[in-house]
Amino acid sequence: MSDKMRGTVEMTAAMVISGTIGLFVVLSGQPVMDVVFWRCAFGAITLLIVCAALGLFRPEVMTRRQIGWAAAGGVAIVSNWILLFAAFPRASISIATAVYNTQPFMLVALGATLFGERLTLTKLSWLGIAFGGMLLIVQSKPDAGAVGTDYLSGILLALGAAFFYAIAAIITKKLKGVPPHLIALIQVTVGILMLAPFANSAALPVDAKTWTLLVAVGVVHTGVMYILLYGAIQKLPTNLVGALSFIYPVVAILADFLAFGHRLQPLQLLGAAAILIAAAGMTLGWTLVKRRVARA
Fold this sequence. Notes:
By secondary structure, this protein is mostly helical. The protein has helices spanning 3-19, 21-28, 32-53, 64-91, 93-100, 103-115, 121-139, 148-173, 180-195, 208-235, 238-244, 247-260, 266-284. It starts with a helix and ends in a 12-residue tail after the last helix. Residues 144-148 have low confidence and may be disordered.
């Protein structure tokens, strides 16, 4: 099997795993802080074993400055998890995931604000389409699983999660050359320290089903997913990584329908499609208008 084929398989598996995390979070029935804490704890154990096996615990691998940036990224990524997991029961997994995929636009906005990156007409056009999709989702009537102010708060939480993901992505750019498994380990370790005071250690789950779901979120959806994702990124061109990443929202919407029967209303479906298409266009560099080649 070629590297490209192996990377495609790894990326596909990583995105399928990511698409099912909302299902595990909701089925666990645990408070969001507890779920994220155990995700970090079990994820840290998995990544600790992987990093040790790869021989990454050497002083020359990371500088103190890089460790500091990785820790800051950990605050952002853990905040992202908290907000996204809180959005799932409020707006449904499908809607929260669709809104969460406004991440590319958050990155563009932060790039323009912090680094003076130029906003092209194409980027603004995709942003306008995504914003239109957001309006359709906000204005549409939610299904029986998400009603009232919870629906709107779920959308706002998903937007907040996308913002913190963009912050984490910008910080990660400063860590070029650092083994990604080690970055992930530092991030989940920071998560343990952040959430330990808030985790409900006095009333731990007593049934095997809940523990199985929590262990899966930490080991599979964090440890294994990171390993597959970073392995794929090292083997695949950027455009293919971007294209395969859209398996994640498709799987999430399908899992939400199969597990909970959440069927998107017509306006919600149209809005979600607009956001995902715009995000794909932004990520993959699609152009809305073909440039005319001037004749000599």
